[in-house]
Amino acid sequence: MTRFASRVFSGVQPTGNLHLGNYLGAITRFVEMQKTHNCIYCVVDMHAITVWQDPAELAHNTREVTAAFIAAGIDPQAHIVFNQSQVAAHAELAWIFNCVARMGWLNRMTQFKEKAGKYRENASVGLFAYPTLMASDILVYRATHVPVGEDQKQHLELARDIAAKFNHDYGKSIADHGFGDAFFPLTEPLITGPATRIMSLRDGTKKMSKSDPSDYSRITLTDDADAIALKVRKARTDPEPLPSDVDGLKGRAEADNLVGIYAALAETGKADVLRDHGGSQFSAFKLALAELAVARMAPIAEEMRRLLADPAHIDSVLADGAERARSIAQDTIDSVKDVVGFVRGRSA
Ligand code: AMP
Ligand code: TRP
Description:
CATH superfamily of the largest domain: HUPs
Number of domains: 2
Bound molecules: adenosine monophosphate, tryptophan
Structural class: mainly alpha
């Protein structure tokens, strides 16, 4: 068995409206993993353009996600933070993976079906090939662990399938080039924690999403204290008071979601929240939730505003991260070329 050094990689799309689901489901986990792993966190601008993005907004949103990472506590010096398009090896490896992955595998991706909707014929080729680029993001660093929300599970399984097929198809060449019995690791998805799927504040059966037309469906990382309080107050609920144990949340999607958000923000479990708030009316619980959300989120929004006032500094953080990412990725892509049989002579 080939051993791979443990390394964390994850990505967030710069498509605007970064929300509480992104924060609790992904970014807080990114922060935590810095203590135990070498981490690479990427703003995936090439994934963003699989659906139309206004160029000026894309650039702004790229800086905004970067600011959110830093404001939330990611250390871009100790770890690596960069935007995907600055490291060409992602696109190079993605092409090779397009030739490893099968049409049938991609045809099963539920996110493509959801995003393409009724107009499949009109979806970009990039939207269909999205998961092969994502596999490339991860595997160009031979990352072993990928923290994400629940919605990314199927894409990570596909990344494992691609790694396994590459290792198998090129097995002899991998061994001949001295890479042992596996070139790519089979990446572990890390979909854990209390908040892997935060739901919309307007509909407890839909996930909180950047693209929901209703601004009241999500708390964003740029919302100020008044906006947060208003959105919590307007969140949909049912008429019953809160139950006193977790079983009582069954069949009550909105109550379950608000208790889950409270628990994640307070860094405790739902049972603890219900021990304190069981029997309360939603009006009282929402006041407590709004207070907690403001206490936790407002300082991050404030720090993001401060960082975004100096875009040149953010760009220099991304350039520095890209340079360090590039040196790791280049090493992988050179070896992949040798394994695949691409000639790469040095000029005389
Ligand atoms: P995206 O906004 O699609 O780029 O997602 C960035 C990260 O946030 C991914 O790890 C997602 O799985 C995670 N994420 C997105 N929406 C939610 C949600 N509603 N609840 C929990 N995690 C989420
Ligand atoms: N597809 C992910 C999302 O929408 C973003 C992403 C792109 C990603 N490349 C990645 C996440 C690699 C983890 C690892 O949330």
